[in-house]
Amino acid sequence: MMRIVEHRSDREWVRRAVALIEADTRRSADTHLLRIDLPEWAHWTGVDGRPAGVDLYLKDESTHPTGSLKHRLARSLFLYALCNGWITESTTVIEASSGSTAVSEAYFAKLIGVPFIAVMAAATSPEKVRLIEREGGRCHFVDNPTEVYEVAAQLEQELGGHYIDQFTMAERATDWRGNNNIAESIFEQMSAERYPVPSWVVVGAGTGGTSATLGRYLRYQGHDTLLCVVDPENSLFYPAYESADGSYCSVHLDTGSRIEGIGRPRVEPSFVSQVIDRMISVPDADSIAAMLFLSELLDRRVGPSTGTNLQGALAIVAEMVDARQPGSVVTLLCDPGERYGSTYFDPDWRAQHDLFADDELAALRRFWTVGRWGTDA
Questions:
Q1: Percent of the chain with pLDDT over 70
Q2: What does the pLDDT average to over 34-52?
Q3: For the segment 172-217, what is each residue's pLDDT rounded down to a tens digit?
Q4: What's residue 246's pLDDT?
């Protein structure tokens, strides 16, 4: 005798929720691609007598409705969870986040009408906390950043909710082949530039989802573009990549990254090291210096992870100039600096956290002038 079991869900609510997110996507224009004018040392005359050089671009993800790169990820995570049946009309969505992802997820939770809780380090900037709460989210703080995973899973059990888990789902929730993802957007916007296929794309890693999407897309489309991932101090991504030792995946650091949004005390499941061509470990003071420098250059504040990106991008620019290798480098402007007014942009706060960057900022200014690093430049 046949036996039948059914667990049918309300597809009409899911249909409406997906439609709301898709409509929001259509209302949002693509983010800007900014060309940064490099000094004269980055340009020369080629062997054919034509102008050559290195061009630098910033993909400005701060222009998303929720103000950061994480808007793309949050949208993908919600669509993924909705279509998997993990989020229903009565589901409380829970996330472990250092800030920007939670801001974006709170936005989408509010859009489809479900509660949202962000489990986050107590040291997260007050500006980000206010943004989460403005979108109707609730913040659950932990003193030890390494505890966010366990606390989020515990809340999922206690509340019968859904832990959306960006650190596991980021690399699989995004369509890396090209469906309004960041890789496709970069290449479309670069298509009319002097060097339309970038020599390098430089990104940081928080979940690893962005680097996985970019690395897979580059291979799928057959581009020669190389992918560089920059990593801050107190992160396991770089040492794991350096050693190619899988055992790092089971290691946890006792302290977390001091550069909000990137770097992790463990190797996250979404970190796909095989698609990365190079990693650069960037000292925190250099990240802060680059954040301050770029804010001056653009006459607008940018966040600290953008500083990390810029340091890596400029290292590659200098390498290409020295080798007289013409081409383009693209990196990301992840979020606006206004979210860090009481932290990274406050000299007293930086002093309290031993994030002194005066010497590094002076070195960066010298580099910008002459195109070489070091005091003998």
A1: 98
A2: 94
A3: 998 888 777 899 999 999 999 999 999 999 999 999 999 999 999 9
A4: 62
Residues in the chain: 377
Structural domain contains residue 22: no
Res. 250 pLDDT band, cuts 50 70 90: low
Q: In angstroms, how far is the first alpha carbon of the chain from the final one?
A: 84
pTM of this structure: 0.92
Same domain, 233 and 330: yes
Q: Which of 125, 152, 171 is the last residue of a domain?
A: 171
How confident is residue 132, by pLDDT bands cut at 50, 70 and 90? very high
116 with 231, same domain: the answer is: no
In a domain, 1, yes or no: no
Model pLDDT, residue 237 = 95
3-state secondary structure the chain: CCCCCCCCCCHHHHHHHHHHHHHHHHHCCCCEEEEECCCHHHEEECCCCCEEEEEEEEEEHHHCCCCCCHHHHHHHHHHHHHHCCCCCCCCCEEEECCCHHHHHHHHHHHHHCCCEEEEEECCCCHHHHHHHHHCCCEEEEECCHHHHHHHHHHHHHHHCCEECCHHHHHHHHCCCCCCCCHHHHHHHHHCCCCCCCCCEEEEECCCCHHHHHHHHHHHHHCCCCEEEEEECCCCCHHHHHHHCCHHHHHCCCCCCCCCCCCCCCCCCCCCCHHHCCEEEECCHHHHHHHHHHHHHHHCCCECHHHHHHHHHHHHHHHHHHHCCCCEEEEEEECCEHHHHCCCCCCHHHHHHCCCCCHHHHHHHHHHHHHCCCCCCC
Last residue of a domain, one of 129, 144, 171: 171
76 & 197 share domain: no
Domain with residue 335: its CATH number is 3.40.50.1100
